[in-house]
Specification:
This protein is an alpha/beta fold. It is about 35% helix and about 25% strand. The strands form three sheets. A nine-stranded mixed β-sheet has the order 16-15-14-13-7-12-11-8-17. The protein has a six-stranded parallel β-sheet with strand order 3-2-1-4-5-6, sandwiched between helices.
Length: about 400
C-alpha cells in the first residue's frame, strides 16, 4: 500500500511547474516507490494567481502565508521554489516543524545562510534535498559511471560553460515576480548562483572537490528600472563570470557563464580530460555522451590507432541510467524528466535509508565555491574554498 506524501509547494513560477509535474508523474514511472506524492497545497502571496496555478495542476488547497503552510499538520514535505533570499528562513522553519525539505538551487544567498540551513535539517533529522536536476540527465549520470569505472584515468582538465542571452537588452527591468534573478537583494548573485551553481555541482560530483579559484565578473548594464519601484537602480548582480579552478585531485578547471552570449539559450557543456580517456556533454543535445577511449580498462592496453577516436553514445538503452523507467531504446527523454528522476532518487533514498545527493550538506559545498568565486572577483586574487 502506497504511503501518501502530502506536498506543500511554495512558488508557482518556472520551478513550481517543473516540480509539480514531477510530483504528478513520479509514481507512474517509478511504481516501485513506497511513497505517492499528493499535491496538498500551493502557497504564494497572490491569492488569485496561486488559485489559478492550483487549479491547473490539481492542488487541493491554497495558502498565501508560508508560515501557515508549515504549521499545517496535513503537510509532510515543504518544497521551496521561491527567490533565493527566502530559502533560509523557510527551510529552517520547515525543518524545525519536522517537515521534509526540498529546495531549489542555489541553496542560499551565501555560505552563512547555507550553514544555518544545513545545521537545521541535520538537527531535526528530516529528509532534505536540493534540486540540482542536471545530475539526473541520463548522459551526465553515465559520465559519472564512466569516471567511477576508471575509464578516464588520472584527470587533467575539467571545463564547463553555461551560456544564455536573455538579459542583453538594456530595457529589461530588474526585480519583481518575473525578473528577481536580476535583483541582487532577491538573488544574491547573477550567473554565479543561477547558472554556475549547476556547473559547480556537476563538477564536484564528477571530479571531486574544488580547492581554490580565481575569478572575474562583469555587469554589462549598470542600471535598470526596478519593476516594483519604477525607479532606475544600480544592477548588483554579475551578468558574466569566468573563473579558473584547482581540484583536490590535481586537475585544473575553467568555468565560464554569461547571459550575454547572443544566440545561446541554455548552452550548458562540460568536458573532462584524463590520461586514459575523455568525455564531453552538451545539454542542448542531451541524449548523447561523447567518450574518447585511449586505454582499454579491460586489458590496460592502448586502443589501436586505426580504431582510436571519439564515440557518441546514444544514452537511451535500458542499461543506461534511469532509462529502464522510460521508453524503448532510441526514444529520448527531456528536461522535465530530470526532475522526475531526481524526485525518484530522493524518495528512494528516504525509503532505503541511504539519502540521495545532493542534500543540504552537499549543496553547502557548492555554495562555498560560489562564495569563493565572488570573493575572488571582488579582490582580484586566488581564494581557497575550504574544500578538499
Amino acid at each position: 500500500m502506497a504511503k501518501p506524501l502530502r506536498v506543500g509547494m511554495i512558488g508557482y513560477g518556472f520551478m513550481g511547474k517543473a516540480h509539480s509535474n514531477a510530483y504528478q508523474k513520479v509514481g507512474r514511472f517509478f511504481p516501485e516507490l513506497e511513497h505517492r506524492p499528493v499535491l496538498a497545497a500551493l502557497c504564494a502571496r497572490n491569492q488569485e494567481k496561486a488559485q489559478a496555478f492550483a487549479d491547473t495542476w490539481g492542488y487541493e488547497s491554497v495558502e498565501t502565508d508560508w508560515r501557515a503552510l508549515i504549521a499545517r499538520d496535513d503537510i509532510d514535505l515543504i518544497d521551496i521554489g521561491t527567490p533565493n533570499n527566502t530559502h533560509a528562513e523557510i527551510a529552517i522553519a520547515a525543518a524545525e516543524a519536522g517537515k521534509w525539505v526540498a529546495c531549489e538551487k542555489p541553496l542560499a544567498m551565501n555560505v552563512e545562510e547555507a550553514e544555518r540551513m544545513t545545521a537545521a535539517v541535520e538537527k531535526a533529522g528530516v529528509p532534505n534535498f536540493v534540486w540540482f536536476n542536471y545530475r539526473r540527465v541520463p548522459a551526465i549520470s553515465l559520465a559519472r559511471q564512466v569516471v567511477e569505472e576508471g575509464r578516464i584515468g588520472k584527470p587533467f582538465h575539467y571545463r564547463a560553460t553555461y551560456l544564455q542571452d536573455w538579459t542583453i537588452a538594456e530595457d529589461v527591468p530588474q526585480g519583481g515576480a518575473t525578473l528577481w534573478r536580476l535583483d541582487v537583494d532577491a538573488a544574491g548573485s547573477g550567473v554565479t548562483g543561477d547558472l554556475l551553481a549547476h556547473s559547480i555541482d556537476t563538477a564536484l560530483w564528477l571530479n571531486g572537490p574544488i580547492t581554490s579559484v580565481v575569478a572575474s565578473t562583469e555587469t554589462f548594464v549598470k542600471e535598470r528600472v526596478h519593476q516594483e519601484t519604477g525607479q532606475v537602480q544600480p544592477v548588483g548582480i554579475d551578468d558574466a563570470c569566468m573563473f579558473l579552478a584547482r581540484f583536490a585531485n590535481g586537475s585544473m578547471g575553467t568555468f565560464e557563464s554569461t547571459r550575454y552570449a547572443r544566440g545561446r539559450k541554455n548552452f550548458n557543456t562540460l568536458e573532462l580530460n584524463g590520461a586514459d580517456g575523455s568525455l564531453a556533454f552538451d545539454l542542448e543535445d542531451p541524449q548523447y555522451l561523447d567518450f574518447y577511449e585511449y586505454t582499454r580498462t579491460d586489458t590496460g592496453s592502448k586502443v589501436e590507432d586505426h580504431l582510436a577516436g571519439w564515440r557518441r553514445v546514444h544514452v537511451t538503452n535500458f542499461e543506461h541510467p534511469y532509462m529502464d523507467h522510460w521508453w524503448v531504446p532510441g526514444c529520448t527523454i527531456g528536461y522535465e524528466h530530470t526532475f522526475i528522476n531526481a524526485l525518484a532518487d530522493f524518495l528512494k533514498g528516504v525509503e532505503t535509508g541511504s539519502p540521495a545527493e545532493p542534500g543540504f550538506r552537499a549543496a553547502l559545498e557548492t555554495q562555498r565555491v560560489c562564495d569563493a568565486v565572488l570573493q575572488s572577483a571582488r579582490e582580484g586574487r586566488w581564494v581557497e574554498t575550504g574544500l578538499g
